[in-house]
Amino acid sequence: MITVKDTVHDHIEIDGVAADLIDTPAVQRLRHVKQLGTVQLVYPSANHTRFEHSLGVYHLASRALGHLGIEGKRADRIEAAAMLHDVGHGPFSHNLESLTHRRTGKYHDDVDELLATGAVGAVLRDRDLDPEKIAGLVAGEGPYGGLVSGELDVDRMDYLVRDAYHTGVPYGTIDTERFVRELTFVDDGTGDDALVLDEGNVQTAESLLLARALMNPVVYTHHVARISKAMLRRAATDLLDATPTTAAELRRMDDHDFLAAIRSCPETAELSRRYDERDLYKLAVWAEYDDVPERVHEADHGAETALEREIAEEAGVARRHVILDVPPEPSMRESTARVTVNGEVRRLERQSPLVSALRTVQRNQWRLGVYAPRPATDRVGRAAADVLGLDPDGLVAEVRGAMPTTLDEFRDGA
User: Fold this and answer.
1) What is the pTM of this model?
2) For the chain, percent helix, then strand, then coil, each to nearest 5?
3) Tens digit of each residue's pLDDT (9 = 90 or more) over 315-368
4) What is the b/e burial string over 193-228, where b = at least 16 CB atoms within 10 angstroms of the residue's CB?
């Protein structure tokens, strides 16, 4: 048994297959992949990694299995999946995933090959565990996969508390012990087991939604984090286009590998310098959801690239000086979590009036961003408002400190 002192869960005891997996290269690599990507540029103490998060997820999964009475081979598979659930992440966690998915067709939870080969595959086979089944659990398949990757998974229970602790933001606090103690499996009416929160735990489920909603604008989508992530995505795209590096190779890099690669590539050296020195692009436009035309919301990557070029041309700047950042549509996966009420299994969105309110909050928090170097923000902002068809009255002004242009100047095209 291995005992690890953890900042969030105190002492974590690691045993069985998880203890064998912890020193494999795939798991140790996670020591060099930051949990929150570039959020450290906003919160300097947010330097925690996917490695310690994986230990926390394993710990909560193990606790849940104890309360659920799951033992033997099934427990081994779930604990292995918990320890391995993040080994598919590329550098800077989710940040480059849209790029690598476009070029490889794989997301971070597509880990079949990783689990079947190398040291991880050897450990699993030595323990008589099928790597394919564990990869399915990592992808959230089946009721037991929902414990690792689902609406009530131990993954988000750990990262919300861990991210709040390391950023110093007092909004991600949830009662993880109550969560794992109140999880249970029930027949969902079709003969299959479903993972639900037991009777009397609507508020427990709501706390997860509320923690996520409060953390979102101050941590996960903070404008400085958004800008720096977008700059690194642009650098990654340019790296793949300018060098023999493949998207598959990029997926297996850690943060240090990636930063070294963009520092040494002439086509990405300037973006790398800006990231290293925190000389970031600034906000040229920061627009709310309802003020962005539908065609922009629905634009795919090719259309977004074309819009960037059009904005740059109209602004009279190089295309590399314009980054258009259109976030995905607001979603609230946790709202489909199931809770038991008066002996009946119900979706949280049906039972909780908070869900509707938090959906509105989430939509109101959504922002489209256009970023440019400080001297160009005025020109780029004007051009972007014109090209994207944005209502000048809808542009958010309070965080546009680098943009001296007034809304009247946008309206008049001055």
Assistant:
1) 0.91
2) 60, 10, 30
3) 999 999 999 999 999 888 888 888 989 888 888 988 899 998 999 999 999 999
4) ebbbbeeebbebbbbbbbbbbbbbbbbbbbbbbbbb
